Amino acid sequence: MDLEKQAIAGEEQALLELLTRHEEMLYRIAFAYLKNEHDAVEAVQELTYRALKKIHTVKEPAYIATWLVRIIINICLDVKKKQKKFVYNHDMEVASVDQQPFEIVDIIASLPTEQQELIYLKYFHDMKNADIAQLKKIPEGTVKSRLHTTLKRLRVLMEKEEL
Prior knowledge:
This protein is mostly helical. The chain folds into two domains: about 90 residues, Rna Polymerase Sigma Factor, Chain: A (Orthogonal Bundle), CATH 1.10.1740.10; about 70 residues, Arc Repressor Mutant, subunit A. The protein is built from eight helices and no strands. α3 packs across α4 and α7 packs across α8. About 10% of the residues have low confidence.
């Protein structure tokens, strides 16, 4: 807790130590969202910058890890929005379904962003419902019901892919 308090007080070395402790988890979250090593590394770099600028806004030292996760998710969502705006000017070859193996990641990517977040946080990063609720600032019951709805939708999409 002392390290967190020092970081909030503005001690850069303490914040850098915290970032180093959580670096692997933050990178995995970024990579899960962006599916690209280069973009994930850039997202973590942007996180470092934003954390240095805004660390003083953290009110509770115990929630610094949650605060960092929220920042990395926001950065990843921003990057994904920018990528959607990018328009390709050349013809792209589209492979048939027979050529492409069944990929759960592709099916998850077809879900709305909020549902993707729930799946990644719960199943790829092993977060508990209570932690997700705290991160998203919603009741734990809402997390459970949204996960239930998301999993039902995911099952339907998976069944369609198998046909």
